[in-house]
From TrEMBL:
InterPro entries: Sortase, Sortase_C, Sortase_dom-sf. This is Class C sortase. It comes from the Bacteria. Keywords: Hydrolase, Membrane, Transmembrane, Transmembrane helix. One of its GO terms (molecular function) is hydrolase activity.
């Protein structure tokens, strides 16, 4: 009798341990992602409030500084090599001065297709990309204008945040938005391509064009290449905004990895229950022999 009770208790303990491990494994990315999302939302909200409180003259000054920065960046075009000319060095020094005046948060990117909003910081360090999106150095600030090319990068996904996890779902004609200095700029996707990390030819400024490229690693969790989602400036109005919402991906696509986890643990639990039933049956038969 004691042996039978011990078998039952052991089986239930194993079941509960596996169940709670599975539950915690499943809930961790959801909870941490939600916390990170709240943090990013707060940063964006604080940025909008800061812009609302700012006097128009100060906002105009920031826009002018951003335009000057972009002019300096254009002067640096083609200087990604190790050799830097005196003119390029002077432009880089001016860029650094302008960045100090503009502030830490440059604005934020809103991508309705994949239901994400990320604050934009300057740089691509691990610390910056753990908090949101980063503006690639020596590329244009997110304020638009002729002969500009803003390059924004973000992780393909972290255990604690989705970031650009679903960027591979972007399609040609999708529209996303840049928000900076109380202005909203709309960009329509014109190409989605995958390149080697060393291929930066698609990031160059094109004379007279207003471009934005979103970058993330590809394939997911392998990160041997880079995915480039390139877009050109288009008119912003409420119709464009509404249309962009209609192209949003299905929640089933967005959270498919969580569905796989649910199915896996459901099968695992059923398997454990099956084993428990077999053990109980065998124990019962042994006790009656």
């Amino acid at each position: 009798m004691k042996k039978r009770i011990l078998h039952i208790l052991c089986g239930r303990t194993i079941f509960l341990v596996v169940f709670f491990i599975g539950l915690l494994t499943f809930l961790y990315p959801l909870i941490s992602s939600n916390i990170n999302h709240r943090s990013q939302t707060q940063v964006i909200s604080n940025y909008d409030e800061k812009m609302d409180r700012m006097e128009e003259g100060e906002r105009q000054r920031q826009r002018e500084e951003a335009v000057r920065y972009n002019a300096y960046v254009k002067d640096l075009e083609g200087s990604r090599s190790e050799t830097i000319t005196p003119r390029e060095k002077e432009a880089m020094e001016r860029v650094n001065i302008e960045m100090k005046n503009i502030g830490e948060v440059l604005g934020y990117v809103e991508i309705p297709r994949i239901d994400i909003e990320l604050p934009i910081y300057y740089g691509e360090s691990d610390e910056i990309l753990s908090r949101g999106a980063g503006l690639m150095p020596k590329t244009s600030l997110p304020v638009g204008g002729d002969s500009t090319h803003c390059v924004i990068s973000a992780h393909r996904g972290l255990p604690s945040a989705r970031m650009f996890r679903d960027l591979d779902q972007m399609e040609i004609k999708d529209v996303f938005f840049l928000h900076a200095a109380q202005e909203t700029l709309a960009y329509e996707v014109e190409s989605v391509r995958v390149v080697l990390p060393t291929d930066i030819s698609a990031l160059e400024i094109e004379e007279g064009r207003d471009l934005v490229t979103l970058i993330t690693c590809d394939p997911y969790m392998i990160n041997s290449h880079r995915m480039l989602v390139r877009a050109h400036r288009t008119e912003y109005n409420e119709g464009v905004k509404a249309k962009s919402q209609d192209r949003k991906i299905s929640p089933l696509v967005k959270y498919q990895e969580y569905l796989f986890v649910i199915v896996f643990f459901a099968i695992l639990i059923l398997f454990i229950k099956f084993i428990q039933t077999r053990v109980k049956k065998r124990t019962y038969e042994e006790n009656w022999k």
